TrEMBL record:
Name of the featured protein: chlorophyllase
Gene3D superfamilies referenced in this protein's UniProt entry, alphabetically: alpha/beta hydrolase (3.40.50.1820)
Alphabetical list of PANTHER family matching this protein: CHLOROPHYLLASE-1, CHLOROPHYLLASE-2, CHLOROPLASTIC
EC number: 3.1.1.14
UniProt key word Hydrolase: yes
Database matches in InterPro entries: AB_hydrolase_fold (IPR029058), Chlorophyllase (IPR048264), Chlorophyllase-like (IPR017395)
Length: 306
């Protein structure tokens, strides 16, 4: 029962606010921040959005996480080049210890000694690249965990089986494990590697998706694969009258509805945060041993230290 509660909204009221660049003390990039309204000291998650996907499309997902007692910082970083995104994300990470408090109410205190890095799609790859030391400037913060939400390393051309990893190449360059020494959670989707139609590419192509990130992750690492759901099914129920919102429904193969996948992704992230940010492993262990606790069907696996 306790484990299944992570898949529901938590008990804390959540506030979501936008923070823009306006002066020298502002964040390096515009941010969407979700946080509990209740007074307290909270761990922090830096969440990187997918390629050309607005950070605002993750409002319900990050609110779910915050309702369980975490501050989530989601910068808006859109560049054609992944390296530019990695560099900007690192700048935001380095800003957090000194800058985040000013963006929050005085009674909501960020504990950046409990800092977790997460990302969806290409943002997931950017997160791994940051911890591999591939940002343009060194990280001055330490992360206690890493989460990849259906991470993708490259693309496939529609209609043919030509695939290519976009630089920096961290999947196809060698077969060695990632030199990342923090616990890792990988959330994959069954339908992500399937094309929507003959003219659309799969947006998480086999050989460049969550499977390879999990294979190259060191212990301890966890993998949960959502059966019957697609690459963007953890996004908000965006209006199909909005052009970008409509595209998120049109370009990827999707499950029946997004709400169960959002609850599942949010719950898995909360269970992981509780385990490795707060030292409470019961929920994560319970879900690993009984994936049917989740709202949707999951395949579960883990690489754990003996």
């Amino acid at each position: 029962m306790a484990a299944s509660s992570v898949f529901e909204m938590g008990k804390l009221e959540v506030h979501v606010k936008s923070v823009n660049q306006s002066n020298s003390s502002s964040p390096p990039k515009s941010l969407l921040i979700s946080y509990p309204s209740q007074k307290g000291d909270y761990g922090v998650v830096l969440f990187l959005h997918g390629f050309l996907i607005s950070n605002s499309f993750y409002k319900e997902l990050i609110s779910h996480i915050s309702s369980h007692g975490y501050i989530v910082v989601a910068p808006r970083i859109i560049y054609p080049c992944l390296q530019d995104e990695i560099n900007s994300a690192a700048q935001v990470a380095n800003w957090l210890p000194e800058g985040l408090q000013a963006a929050l109410p005085p009674n909501v205190q960020p504990n950046t000694s409990k800092l977790t890095l997460a990302g969806h799609s290409r943002g997931g790859k950017a997160a791994f690249c940051m911890l591999l030391g591939l940002a343009g400037s060194p990280l001055t913060v330490q992360f206690s965990g890493l989460i990849g939400v259906d991470p993708v390393a490259g693309f496939q051309i529609p209609g043919i089986n030509y695939k290519m990893e976009i630089p920096p190449k961290i999947i196809t360059n060698n077969s060695k494990p990632f030199d990342i020494n923090v616990p890792t959670l990988i959330i994959g989707t069954e339908l992500g590697e399937e094309a929507k139609g003959c003219l659309a590419p799969p947006y998480a192509p086999a050989g460049l998706n969550y499977e390879q990130f999990y294979e190259k992750s060191k212990e301890p690492s966890y993998q949960f694969v959502a059966k019957g759901y697609g690459h963007v099914d953890m996004l908000d129920d965006i209006s199909k009258n909005d052009l970008m919102g409509k595209l998120t429904y049109c370009v990827c193969k999707n499950g029946k509805e997004r709400e169960p996948m959002r609850r599942t992704a949010g719950g898995l992230m909360v269970a992981f945060l509780k385990a490795f940010s707060d030292g409470q492993r019961d929920d994560l262990d319970a879900i690993l041993n009984d994936p049917e606790l989740a709202p949707i069907q999951l395949d579960a696996g883990a690489k754990l230290s003996s």
